[in-house]
Every structure is written in structure tokens, then in C-alpha cells.
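A favour between colleagues. Tell me how you read the following sequence-structure pair.

===
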Amino acid sequence: MSLIHNILDHNESFVQNKEYEQFVTSKFPDKKMVLLTCMDTRLVELLPKAMNLRNGDAKIIKNAGAIVTQPFGNIMRSIIVALYKLNAKEVCVVGHHECGMTGLNSEDLIEQITESGIHEEAIDTLRNAGIDLNRWLTGFDNVQSGVENSVRIIRNHPLLPKNTPVHGLIIDPVTGKLDLVTDGYEYLSSKEG
């Protein structure tokens, strides 16, 4: 049986047995937080447990490396919507040790893409359309600089509500230990002083 059919079979049982009832909540985050983190599989259950988050506590946005690459892309749009329309009041960017985006080489990735059968013409079409694939497919030198850069882009966004704390953390993907990279409260108080 295929993966999708296994999922659908499980889902039928899940709904029939009303297992969803333990997860019922509203669309508004109880802890008034929007969280940007990595899509790493080790964080699916570990990160919410390590942060004491239950279903309904936070808006969680995931991508490769918890990276905000541009201030007017989908990630930042989601953060702005969460802050203005969904009652989030704080932002946390959580990167993790051993991230696959650390040292990601765009040229190597583009080579893998072409070796998989994507024609060079498709790559050229994107480049001719003004897409900087090298920038778009680049990770970061280390997780701390990646978190700091994403936090900086969010903090400096012209649409970010004034006095929104934006925090940066790094999680150990094995133990769940969180290290504070930048405290949004301290940052805001230093701007006032």
C-alpha cells in the first residue's frame, strides 16, 4: 500500500474514533506567539515539547533553516498576518544545531538538480527572469548567524507592529535544550534608552 493510502486509512479511523477532539482549539494562538523554525524532522514533536507548547499555543511557520531571505516573501507575509489578524504579539525564530542549511552550497545543489533530469534550459530561464539561484539556494555559515539574520530582517520590517519582541533561539535537535541568541525584550528596551 502506498504512503498516501496508509495516511488516508489512518485518517478515516482517526476521524471515526473522534481522536481529533483532544486537539480542538481556535485559530488564535493562546500564547500569542508566532514561531519561525526549521522543517527538520527531529523538531516536529521535540520543539513544541521543549518550549511547552500545546496545540493552539502558537502559529508555527516552517521552512529550510528558519530563514527569512527577503522582507517581502511568504515567510514575512505569514508573520505579519499572524501579528495583525491572528492576535500574535511576539515572534520567535528558532534555528537548530546540525542544520542542513549550514554551509549549503548553491552550485552543488544546482548540479544535483540538473543531474536529476532538470534541463539546463529551465535553470537558464529562471536566471533570465532575474532569479538569483545562487542567493536563493544558499544557506548560512553557522546557525547563530542564520538566526541573527532572520531576526534582523523581521525586526527591521516596515510593517512590523511597533514594540513587537522578536527573539532568536537555537535548539539542540537531540536534547531539546534551548539557547537564547537574542532577547526581544532586551532589544526593545535598549532602543528606548
